[in-house]
Structures
1.
Amino acid sequence: MVCGVFTTSKVPDGFQGAVVALYKANDPPPTSVTSTQDADGTWTVIATWPPCPPGTVHESASPPSPGRRE
Amino acid sequence: MKFPRSRNWFEAQAVRLAALLIVLVFAASCSPIRGYPNNFQDNDETIDRLRSSTEITRSQYNSTTDPTSLKDLRNKVIFNEMQISEIYFTDFQARLWADNNLFSTGSDLIVLILTGLGATTGDATTKAALSAASAGIVGATGAISKDIYYQRTLPAILAQMSANRDKVKASIIDNLTKKDNSQYPLSLAEMDLQVLQRASGIVDAVQGITNSATIDKDAAAAQVEAARQGTFSQSITSQRIRAWLGFGTDPTKPSTLNAANFNALQKWVNQHLAGAIPVASLISDAPGVENLRAQAIHDLNIP
């Protein structure tokens, strides 16, 4: 079961929508997907699922930065 | 003068018949389920011969100082003892396998026989006795069935035992071949034989299997952690998967997610990665993901 935060960065401008669509289509779907455009014009897409239960895999330490809410 | 046979006589005969059938069924069922062919040698005789040879060689070892002789004698002692160990191990494996199978195959037939006799023979007391015996065996097989985990894991345990032994044997043989007596004296080699003895047990086998499972689990956890942060992959495999999912390589062209292909890939992720990473992570360049993509492309025949 997916849990925690997954990030895809350096997404070219034209593929940002595709990456977001892939995250959203996941089963189970994420609780949120945010996109942030970086200075170089690429995007960072962050998908968040409920936190991982203790003792499984570790959740990414970096919280999702504020950005465009998809 | 003939006396009419009493009812008790017939009941006693029925019980004797049941006992005989039990013996016959067990006798018939033991042989084919042993799992190992008959030994080509007499184990007891071989062990006696090896022990005798070992003692003679050991006394020769203790009374010589010639380095070449010491090495030869040491090796002879250890190879004899390894052969004895091998005989005991094969017997141990065979008994483990036979104990595992004996009741589960033989008892089914006994239950049928006792149930049948209970239904057709004697008075209420005899029927009750036969049915009770049948129920007892059903209960016993039930208990064994509860031990189904043991039955299912036995092949893995046997395989792990052999692997553990092979590892220790390889180390001993390597030392015997390469090292002279001053580097690897008989006392040290015999300590390694004790390690070989421990490696032959169920405890070490289960521990080995558990360790392997833990390593696999840790590797899977590391894979998930690595997949958490990745950059968008431009590799050929990533392009193929994106195109298959409905997203072409040209970002200026409109695209729509191919739901059927996505579902197939989702199912693959669930099967191979326990669904622990999102499908979207498969188009990132996080460590290890390239191999996952290649595997998915192969498994799903992605063009």
Note: The beta strands of chain B are 229-231.
2.
Amino acid sequence: MRFKLLDRIVDLKPGVSITAVKGLALSEDYLADHFPQFPVMPGVFMLEAMTQASAWLIRASEDFQHSFVVLREARNVKYADFVAPGQTLTVTAEMLSQTERETKLKVHGMVDGKLNVSARLVLARYNLAEGNAARASADAHVIRQMRLRFDVLYRPTDCSAGASAGNGSPATVNRLAINPTEINSAAIQ
Amino acid sequence: MRWFWIDRFTEFTSGQSATAIKTLSLSEDHLHDHFPGASCMPNTLILEGMAQTAGLLVCEHGGFTKQVVLAKVSKAQFHFEAWPGDTLTYRAQVQSIKDDGAMASVTSHVNGQLQAEAEIFFAHLEQLNSRGDKLELFDPYDLFSWLRLLKLYEVGRDADGNPLKIHPHMAESDPHLRSSAVAAS
Amino acid sequence: MPVQQAEVFEKVRNCLVDALGVDDDEVTPEATMVGDLGAESIDFLDIVFRLEKTFNIKIPRGELFPEDILSNAQYVREGKVTSEGIAQLKTRMPFVDLTKFEADPRVTNFGNLLTVQDLVNYVQSKLP
């Protein structure tokens, strides 16, 4: 199973907040065990979706300076309801404060406008090279991969909004919007 | 991905405490996304291992007849990362079990060092399906199979220190145990 | 506040800070559990566990948070608690002043009734 708990980032305000979605499909193999008679998203995956949203907010806000952005603390993680296959969990993370090492966030997840889960999180960020200079190339590799993943997750449809967020080139967005006039002029040439 | 976040119990005292281990291996798919090129165990999956250790301890106290689900984590702290090749040791202690739920405190150790700690709340679920029948999360035989994989009945002890007996709810679900009981009677 | 009550208040406050993730200074005697401190039903279980452990007392189900009365068709009609239901609440929770609630006994109002002081009074009543 791929450990990607978000399908798309729908809103991003660097340094402030992020909203992302995860749809639950019956084809996700772990559902066969959780639970065999009552398949629902595991609570820790709801937490992981909120953690990953928080991590993307941190990464995008600092232009991917660190390779490792990890959960250090979770407080008051409260589950109000289940997420069933066919439903979409919309997660939002708001940055509360940040030090050089750690970020505090308030997070929640909603299904159909109802609150399903909420928590307060602390995420830490660092590079492996800080402990061992020889690991700098591993950091560079992780950061490169995470940038590519971010470009897949966050594709704002508005060109100017995409450019100002500093991610994915306008060309990426335009390729998806086919203009009939352009096709005709290309055919003439 | 199977939803098994502990490999087996090494200690289990009914209603009190349980210890389980989880070994981390590069052959696990999810490690290659967290993160691509440098893998460490996601802390939420460590939390799940802690919850499974404590949840089965709570569930066993009710003879595996109650539906136990994760309801709240009041506090979870992760002090350092765990890496492929590490073995995580989860130890759960029951703090309280009541009719509507239970609370356990759980730790995670790697090489004798405290890697994580959490306070976990479980609710005893009374769920009905669309027909109004009581919903079971697991078919008893599926649950029994999982408990056997975890070696629960090999290391388990009751509160008096005697080997844990297979619970009637579990034994009834197993055709082999049922037929042995009939043959013996 | 007499010494013993002050001690009880401080211990109750610590339980609420741990259970609800609120700050010390948010837990005032007048603060309501649901409205001010944001307690939800799963938090009630957490609070009961912590109070039992801290004070070495037993809190029977529904004695502190009477969800069974508030969800019982016998005591609730059209979203309001009946006089029979109010009588039940009074017996169950002598440590709470129900006068305001009686004036407008909507079930949805009940959550805003219970204050930190009520909790302190309850714990005190259970101590030897």
Note: The helical segments of chain C are 3-20, 41-55, 67-70, 83-92, 99-103, 107-110, 116-126.
